[in-house]
Amino acid sequence: MPPFPSSVVIREVGLRDGLQSIETLLPTPQKIEWIDDAYAAGQREIEVGSFVPARLLPQLADTAELVAHAKALPGLLVSVLVPNLKGAERAIEAQADLLLVPLSASRAHSLANLRKTPDEVVAEVARIRAARDAAGSKTLIEGGIGTAFGCTIQGAVEQSEVLRCMQALLDAGADRVSLADTVGYANPAAVRDVFEKARRIAGDKLWCGHFHDTRGLALANVYAALETGVARFDATLAGIGGCPHAPGASGNAASEDLAFMLADMGIATGIDIERLLALRAKISQWLSNETLHGTLWLAGLPKTFSAQSIHAHSA
Ligand code: ZN
Asked: Is the overall model pTM greater than 0.90, yes or no?
């Protein structure tokens, strides 16, 4: 078993995965304040939105403006989600640092959500790669494999199909691949198994783990992925997100809880947790009608928590 990574990136996806799943429409100035505060707290990778038609997701209609703002923050890796070539062209034009194309390994989920089979998404990634290269753009392409541990529509998703999709995405020209437990069906044993096999396929291109806390296992799943050497995780502040079919259900792993777990294990994240908690308090005001999650904000940091670990990476 490899040692834990010495440093880990928490990619904040609250502005995309979180906000797209809740009812409250957060105004652009507050999103900009969120980005600025997250940056000031040490976060260096933020998924600021999604280039989808505004009529489908009015919550994310200001994505181009947010990319432009975030790009001005030195050293911040600005990512966006895109569902297709059209969205990718907007991401390339906006000079996003990374565009994430979601692929659902569940055929039923893929047809329901993207109206494409997994292989049609792979073909779209090949077109996106060609467009990116033709534009001379530096935008990285990440293939994010969702429902990798099961699906609310289809039920079981075969591991062999998840790994086949991963190989296909790499063959189509994805620069990075990641695995997502979109609906909170994963457990640590399954995570460890799939990530170990994925590593053999993708090597260093295996980029990120994305775990929802629907059944309380997000941090346990992060731990299992850490054991296989994964060093980047998606998370949302206050664990916002959830599931449109299960009111009150938890969203992603909570960024502040994850930052605490990693720092307390001696793994550098570059994040100042007190500042992140202060931002969480703001967001709880902005989203006062929503159910928020996470536990660190209730109890605070323990007396045994070393301030040194908070700043280990920010020097
Ligand atoms: Zn998600």
From this structure: yes
pLDDT in tens, 116-163: 999 999 999 999 999 999 999 999 999 999 999 999 999 999 999 999
Name the DSSP class of 104: E
Q: Which domain holds residue 277?
A: 9-314
Q: Which residue has the tokens 């009111």?
A: 247
Q: Residue 128: inside a domain, yes or no?
A: yes
Count structural domains, the chain.
1
CATH number at residue 142: 3.20.20.70
Instruction: DSSP letter for 209, please.
Output: E
Q: Catalytic residue among 151, 165, 208, 243, which? A: 243
Q: What is the DSSP letter of 267?
A: -
Give 72-91 as a DSSP string: TSTT-EEEEE-SSHHHHHHH
Residue 178 Cα to ligand 1 midpoint, Å, equals 12
Task: Verify whether residue 243 is a known catalytic residue.
Answer: yes
4 C-alpha to center of ligand 1: Å?
24
Strands (E) across 58-175 are located at 77-81, 98-104, 140-146
